Amino acid sequence: xxxxxxxxxxxxxxxxAPNLPTFAAVEQGFFxxxxxxxxxxxTGSSVEQAQxxxxxxxxxxxxxxxxxxxxxxxxxxxxxxxxxxxxxxxxGTQLELAIVTAPEIKEYADLKGKxxxxxxLSTGFAFVxxxxxEDGGLKRDDATYAPVGATPQRWQSVKxxxxxxxxxxxxxxxxxxxxxxxxLDVSTRIYDSYQGGxxxxxxxxxxxxxxxxxAFIRGYLKGLAWTLDPANREAAEQLLQAKMPExxxxxxxxxxxxxxxxxxxxxxxAKIIPEGMKRxxxxxxxxxxxxxxxxxxxxxxDLSHYEAVTGAN
Length: 313
Fold this sequence. Notes:
Elements: E1 7-13, H1 20-27, H2 30-33, E2 36-42, H3 46-54, E3 60-64, H4 65-72, E4 86-91, E5 98-101, E6 115-118, H5 124-135, E7 144-147, H6 151-159, E8 165-168, H7 172-178, E9 182-186, E10 197-202, H8 203-208, H9 210-228, H10 233-243, H11 252-259, H12 274-287, H13 304-310
Parallel strand pairs: 1-2, 1-3, 6-7, 6-8
Antiparallel strand pairs: 3-10, 4-10, 5-8, 5-9
Helix pairs in contact: 1-9, 4-12, 5-12, 9-13
Keywords: Signal
Subcellular location: Periplasm
Protein name: ABC-type nitrate/sulfonate/bicarbonate transport system substrate-binding protein
C-alpha cells in the first residue's frame, strides 16, 4: 500500500488491559506507518460483538478463542442465526480469569445459593468458572447465573450488590481487590495454559483484504513489542491509565505485572498457544452442547498472514 491509499480498519474488542498494544500502535504511529487508520470500539458483551461483526460493522475482532470455536460449531451465544465468521489470525493472551466475590464470600462453599454474573451462560469463560467450581468442591447447580455482559458490567453488578461473584480480567481484578472485594481463585492455579484472547477477522473480509491484514499485523506486533519492552514500562503505564482512568494508581503496578506476564497476560510475538487451545476445546466438549469431542484447533485458524509477516511456519 502507498501513502495515498490509507486503509481504515474497524476493530471491536472487549474492555481491558490487553488492549494496551493496540493503544500503543495507535499512539506510537505504528499503524500510521503502515498507512492504516484504526477505529476501536469496545463491546458490551460477546453477543453484541458477534451480532455487530456478523452485520459487517467490523473487520478485526479481538475476542476469546472459545467464541471463535462456539460460532464455528453453531453453538454461539447469540444463536444459530448469527455467524460472525471468525477466523484466528494470531494469538493474543494467555489470560488469567479471577473469581471476584463480595466481601462476605470467603470460600467456595459460601457461594451456594448465590447469584453469579457472567457474560453469557454458554461461553468459554463460563466453562472456566464451572471447572473452577468443580475443583473447589461446588456443583454447577449450587449457584445461579445471570448474563450481564462484559467485565465492566459484571464487576459493577458485584460491586453494587446485585450479584455475589463474577469472573474478571485485569484491570478489574486489581480494582476489585483494592476496593475490598475478594479474589477467591484464579484460573492460572489450575491451568498451565489457556488460550484466552485471540486476534480474528471476518473470513469474508480477510479473503478480500490480505494486504490490509498483513499491514495490521505488522503494526500490531510493533505495538506489542513496544508494550513488552521494559524500557517503555513507565510510558506504557501512563498510556494504560490515560485510556482506562478507572484504574486506581495504587492498582496500576499489579495490573501491569499481570498484563506483562506471559502466564497471565500478553503472549510474546502474539503466538498461538496450542496446548491452551486444546484446553478450550476440552472445556467446550465437556460443558457445551453435547456432540462429538472437539480436538482440532487448526479448524479455526488461518495463520498464513502472520507467517508471511513474521517468517514463522
